[in-house]
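Tip: read the tokens left to right.
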């Protein structure tokens, strides 16, 4: 029987629950139903967007995850009143927004990457902003040069300081012509959140177009923004004088849905992911089927299970509509059980395959090529910083003692331990709460056998 600590208790930024440890008895398939709520990578941005409105906003399907708590806390130190109207429904009232003091903001340093997106809204509201050093998963350098270049294009004065970034816009912000060197999700959000209230028109080229970006555009349009999405990754934004609050239900979390699908493959399970939708997961579903997975699309979700022996695949991560980089880590766990050689080209981040070392410790046969692998039938342009993993299977996984490195890597360790024979120890599981709501409760509902200790 699993001894659960309260999984829904909010995890204060960097709270001590990062130290929690799972003891997992593996070798059992995960079977049952999980409910996936709103996307971590939209809900947090929509919360920031509420700062731009002159009236209160309502955000629905907000997941109970620590990334949301960090953004809520940062909004509150800026005087935004955030109240939970009911489970998963937040009311965000920016009418009392004020400058926050350095200490309060700095308390959030290192907790997430979202604070960088406060720049535009705070500059419009207060003509100044201070952004603490960012956190987020250690899957690469995670530079913010695209963000700072964009803000300067809008007329902001940007000073990088040892403790964070100080910005000012004494004369307000004006429209800009911006071409991103890479379709960066965060930089695209930075431009959207700044351009909507800038004086004049902004043209953004080489923009990210992930479903979460389109959902953020929907949120801003509800607020009164004028944003046109053109062909070939071009987005035009006509700045407006003022915006009002929105009422929005977040898009579902594609990353969590894909993670549970890979868990079904890895443990030979059968998982119904309520809330998952086919349209936003087309590319994932193609790979899932090629690996030997079987899925049924229902009105209210998707059922994922193995369709027989798992088969090897070659996957290149890419920006949308390609195979998302966030999906590759749980997929690699499943590929350790496929019969043959699989290759995963990680083209988005320069260090997102380090997590495989612990899988090798558990018996997997994975070789990481730090400089990537050149091969003829590439569909995604090779990037200088890309890496590749070659996975040979099937290899039986055995128990190990591992430490969670990052959000998706940590999730991957848990499903690897669930697929492995024996009793594994997975440490620092608090990081997983950044992006997976009620994670331990869901594992219990799926029949996982584990204990939690502080
Ligand atoms: C968002 O990160 C997501 N996080 C990531 O999900 C996701 O992996 C990523 O988009 C790609 O889809 C959130 O939305 C909070 P990027 P972001 O800017 O915006 C380089 C998860 O597991 N780059 O699209 O930080 C960067 O180094 C997380 O939920 C610059 O060089 O990603 C990377 O190589 C992990 N300079 C590439 O672009 C910049 O100024 C893509 O980064 C910005 C980015």
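Filled-in amino acids:
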């Amino acid at each position: 029987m699993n001894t659960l600590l309260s999984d829904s208790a909010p995890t204060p930024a960097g709270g001590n629950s990062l130290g929690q440890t799972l003891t997992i008895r593996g070798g059992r398939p995960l079977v049952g139903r999980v409910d996936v709520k709103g996307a971590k990578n939209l809900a947090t941005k929509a919360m920031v967007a509420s700062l731009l409105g002159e009236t209160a906003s309502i955000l629905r399907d907000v997941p109970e995850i620590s990334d949301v708590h960090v953004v809520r806390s940062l909004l509150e130190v800026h005087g935004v009143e955030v109240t939970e109207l009911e489970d998963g429904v937040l009311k965000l009232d920016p009418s009392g927004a004020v400058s926050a003091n350095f200490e309060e903001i700095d308390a959030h340093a290192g907790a997430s990457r979202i604070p960088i997106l406060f720049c535009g809204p705070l500059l419009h509201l207060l003509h100044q902003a201070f952004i603490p050093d960012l956190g987020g998963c250690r899957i690469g350098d995670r530079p913010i040069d695209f963000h700072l270049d964009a803000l300067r294009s809008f007329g902001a004065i940007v000073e990088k300081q040892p403790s964070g970034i100080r910005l000012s816009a004494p004369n307000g912000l004006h429209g800009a012509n911006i071409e991103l060197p890479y379709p960066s999700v965060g930089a695209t959000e930075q431009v959207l959140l700044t351009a909507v209230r800038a004086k004049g028109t902004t043209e953004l080229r080489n923009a990210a177009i992930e479903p979460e970006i389109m959902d953020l555009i929907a949120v801003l349009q509800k607020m009164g923004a004028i944003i046109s999405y053109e062909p070939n990754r071009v987005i035009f934004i006509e700045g407006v004088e003022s915006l009002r609050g929105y009422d929005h239900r977040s898009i579902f979390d594609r990353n969590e849905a894909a993670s549970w699908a890979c868990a079904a493959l890895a443990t030979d399970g059968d998982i119904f992911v309520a809330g998952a939708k086919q349209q936003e997961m087309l590319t994932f579903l193609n790979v899932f089927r090629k690996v030997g997975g079987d899925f049924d699309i229902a009105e209210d979700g998707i059922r994922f299970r193995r369709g027989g022996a798992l088969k090897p695949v070659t996957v290149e991560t890419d920006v949308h509509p390609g195979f998302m980089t966030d999906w590759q880590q749980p997929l690699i766990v499943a590929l350790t059980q496929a019969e043959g050689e699989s290759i995963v080209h990680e083209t988005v981040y320069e260090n997102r395959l380090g997590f495989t070392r612990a899988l090798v410790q558990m018996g997997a046969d994975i070789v990481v090529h730090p400089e990537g692998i050149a091969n003829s039938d590439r569909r995604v342009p090779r990037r200088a910083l890309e890496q590749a993993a070659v996975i040979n299977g099937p290899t039986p996984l055995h128990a190990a003692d591992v430490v969670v490195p990052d959000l998706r890597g940590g999730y991957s360790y848990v499903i690897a331990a669930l697929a492995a024979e024996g009793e594994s120890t997975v440490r620092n599981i608090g990081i997983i709460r950044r992006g997976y709501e009620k994670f331990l409760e869901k594992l219990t509902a799926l029949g996982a056998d584990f204990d939690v200790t502080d």
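The pocket of EPZ is lined by residues 40-41, 113, 137, 140-147, 182, 184-187, 208, 255, 324-326, 348-349, 407-408, 435 (CB under 6 Å). Residues 5-16 have pLDDT under 50 and may be disordered.
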